[in-house]
UniProtKB/TrEMBL annotation:
Keywords: Signal
PANTHER family: AMINOPEPTIDASE-RELATED, PROTEASE M1 ZINC METALLOPROTEASE
Name used for this protein in its record: Aminopeptidase N-like N-terminal domain-containing protein
Domain Aminopeptidase N-like N-terminal: 36-155
Classification via InterPro entries: Aminopeptidase_N-like_N, Aminopeptidase_N-like_N_sf, Peptidase_M1_aminopeptidases
Signal peptide start-end: 1-23
């Protein structure tokens, strides 16, 4: 009888977690499933001498799963030159980008094309960016410590991946 009670509590807990995960509030922050990422190529240069900034380019290879004219990504605290964002199909033909916009409250970036992306086609999205190494302990940040032997302050650069859920890993594994 004790086992049955524990089993019921477990089932109720799973039901409650599912209702939280499926609520409209959390879905507002999820990116649409119109694209499946295939690979990411990230190049970052970090400037430590005087400015504590970084610059880079990310190239995201993805397959279109559902017809759409917009690619939606998570993005926050980056400076993106919207005129330099490029989308190309695998035949290396550039797809015209009509606009790049941001929703800072939801930390989303929208890349809108003048044409629809076709299901089963592969695309390459290239985004150049810059950003500041902050001391907020979030994302790509800097910190420092005092070296006991030399009594000098040393800089430490730390990159933290904040959003990596088991659901995303399972879905694209």
């Amino acid at each position: 009888m004790k086992f049955l009670g524990i089993k019921m509590i477990f089932i109720i807990a799973l039901s409650l977690m599912r209702s939280v995960v499926n609520s409209e509030e959390t879905s507002d922050f999820k990116i649409p499933t119109n694209f499946k990422p295939v690979s990411y190529e990230l190049n970052v240069t970090t400037h430590l001498e005087d400015k504590f900034i970084f610059e880079g380019v990310v190239c995201i290879r993805m397959i279109c799963v559902g017809a759409t004219d917009t690619i939606v990504l998570h993005s926050t605290s980056l400076n993106i030159d919207t005129k330099s964002v490029v989308v190309a199909n695998c035949g290396e033909n550039v797809i015209p980008v009509s606009s790049v916009s941001f929703d800072p409250d939801k930390e989303l970036m929208h890349v809108k094309s003048t044409v629809n992306f076709k299901p089963c086609d592969e695309y390459l999205l290239t985004i150049p960016f810059t950003g500041n190494l902050t001391d907020d302990l979030v994302g790509y940040y800097r910190s420092s410590y005092v070296d006991k032997e030399s009594n000098q302050t040393r800089c430490v650069i730390i990159k933290i991946l904040i959003q990596c859920t088991a659901q995303v890993i399972k879905k694209y594994k």
